[in-house]
Amino acid sequence: IIDNLLHANHGVIKSKKEIHAIGHRMVHGAEIFTHPVIITEAVIEQTRKCCKLAPLHNPANLIGIESALEILPGIPQCGIYDTAFHQTMPKHAYLYSIPMSLYKKHGIRRYGFHGTSHQFVSEQAADLLKMDYKKMKIITCHLGNGSSIAAIKYGKSVDTSMGMTPLEGLMMGTRSGDIDPALIQFIAEEEKMSAADVTNILLNKKSGMLGVTGISNDMRDVHEAIAKGNLDAKAGLDIFCYRLKKYIGSYIAAMNGVDVIVFTGGIGELDDIVREHTMSELDWLGIKIDNKVNEGRKFEVTMLSTPDSKVKVMVIPTNEEFMIARETAKLVNDMKHSEK
């Protein structure tokens, strides 16, 4: 990365001295990190303790931090945690209906992910609509190979679809999303697998769109198969959109209304068919979509709803890198002011 930044032809800086701070996207901060932090040895150790909650992501995040500390010693480093934005959820939204002792002992609860993206697009929606963020009810749909939806009420996340891990919630590229928990034992016994393999291999890597269609985790391949008459591909699309619509409906009920619904992420931004299917038959809520605008939408911010729609529906490209840079700059500036 440093070599590319300094590259004579396509680099953006001439010296490492031009780097004033480094921002790291961190996946899981449990209940320890409720906001971005300056990285210290204590932060590294606390993040290491969270590895059991995100065994695929947190170790890689820590490698990035350790490498940056070695290459750029003395440069402030900041951790921006994917789970932090959702730490405002009320207890009734984040607790599972399992023995309370398990939550108190192991921290088993809903944490949610994609927080940086949900925060960015919800704030952007308020800015673009010239509305007060802290007086709005917003539903954000981050749809990609990993997908999640969030309910944001008066500037705070009050619910989200991913749980203690990113496996819960919506149907995804290779992840199952919500299932009957008893399926794990049933599949393990019937398929002669361990429970760990059912979770880590089958439900995480071989389910979702890939599992249902038997074709691909890429929605573009699914659309091509549907055009050729593949019924399993059609089932995959129908399940994906139906589950998304169910979550949207439940979050509207949970917030007692909604002002704007935002689509973002690779699928949310680029797949007009998914948006159309998901938003269909919601006219009873006063939601009206301009299908021509939806079909013609390219890469920019787009208002999909008609002028007389009671609920605004938008596509807003996410920019997690901007959020990480913004929070890093704020942290470092605050640190410098506190030292004066």
Automatic annotation (TrEMBL):
SUPFAM superfamilies: Actin-like ATPase domain (SSF53067). The keyword ATP-binding applies. One of its GO terms (molecular function) is acetate kinase activity. It comes from the Bacteria. Keywords: ATP-binding, Kinase, Nucleotide-binding, Transferase. GO terms for biological process: acetate metabolic process. InterPro entries: Ac/propionate_kinase (IPR004372), Aliphatic_acid_kin_short-chain (IPR000890), Aliphatic_acid_kinase_CS (IPR023865), ATPase_NBD (IPR043129). Pfam families: Acetate_kinase. PANTHER family: ACETATE KINASE, ACETATE KINASE-RELATED. NCBIfam families: ackA (TIGR00016). Belongs to the acetokinase family. This is Acetate kinase.
